[in-house]
Design brief:
Hut operon positive regulatory protein HutP; Regulatory_HutP; 29% strand; alpha+beta; 4 helices
Length: 147
Amino acid sequence: MFETLSIGKTALLLCISSESEEEVIRETSILNGCKVLKGRVGSMDSAKIFAAIETAAKKEGLIKDLYREEHSLYHTVLEAYSGVCRGQVGLGDILRTAGLTFSVVRGPRFPGDDTDGEWIAVALYGNIGAPIKGYEHEVMGFGINPI
């Protein structure tokens, strides 16, 4: 189904996939030399969203406890988060909350091409809005950076 997926497409598809689709994407990604993870986070606090993604990435072995790897992940999450918040990075202070699914993918940008080193991609998908049921709408954000 998915013979070749860049890490960007992998992150985006994984983030919005159903469980059956997720398994195919994971298998394809591993064959292409990538590490992947998918998780969920919800909060009115931006810091909690960043921390959840970083913690999951460390726990699953996608990044090491090295400054350059943490720094790359941070900027990748910030880029994706900026898309979710439409450039206005903030939640709780302006009475917004988010419920998000996230995916993190690490590997070569394109399958079979490791001449460019390793990259990391983050996709966020979910809902954002006032902390009142029914006052939210769908959002998606994406970021990619070299490690």
